[in-house]
Amino acid sequence: MRKETDRIKTGPLRMLVLVTGFVAVLVYGTISVAAADFFWFLRGFGEQPARIVVYHDGGKRTELRPGDAGFAELSDALQSCLSAGAERPSGIGFSNASLLDAYTRYLTVEAFFERPVKLHAWFDTGEPTQMLFPLTGRHSELSIVLLGQNGKYLASPPALETLAPLREAVLSLGYHE
How many other CB atoms are there within 10 angstroms of residue 123's CB atom? Predict the structure, then answer.
């Protein structure tokens, strides 16, 4: 025969703590799996591009590498924009015509990385090796960054919190639409 003291006591406070803990682990796990990133909640981006291309002045293309004048400013501005974080997936896509316009008609910055990088967000951003930042023209008001690999960009690019540091850096270096 069992005594009353042998039973496990489950008071309301203990039950509340257990249920809250279970729900927190479930939510965190679900977001982590969906984002393919266990550190989705982190902010910050410290990767430096291997090269940066600025498309400006109606079709001109200027490629910058580490050590070139203006590269450090653009790299720092890119890191600042990406470190501020991704707000949400934009839900839009860029057609081939939109990409061509970004390269030939508008002010656009493209960054290339030597290895895949991770942009932390609550949704899956993949592991891009290139990023395209439209600063003027179609969808530029959304502060999006197109993420890609092997010359192809994915649909529904993330909307960043801000592209202001990159816009300021590009204009201070004398690039225009």
Answer: 15
140 in helix, strand or coil?
helix
Q: How far apart, in whole angstroms, are the C-alpha atoms of residue 70 and residue 147?
A: 23
177 touches 167 (CB < 8 A): no
Average pLDDT, the chain: 89
165: left (phi over 0), alpha (psi -120 to 50) or beta: alpha
Side chain identity at residue 125, one-letter code: T
Q: Is 64 exposed, middle or buried (0-12, 13-18, 19+ CB in 10 A)?
A: buried
CB 86 within 8 A of CB 20: no
The token duo for 104 is: 């030939």
Identify the DSSP state of 47.
P
The one-letter amino acid at 110: E
Per the structure block, which two tokens stand in for 177? Answer: 């639409």
- pLDDT tens-digit profile of 104-131? 999 999 999 999 999 988 888 989 999 9
Which residues, at least 6 apart from 162, have a Cβ–Cβ distance to it below 8 Å? 81, 84, 143
Q: Please give the structure tokens belonging to residue 146.
A: 């197109």
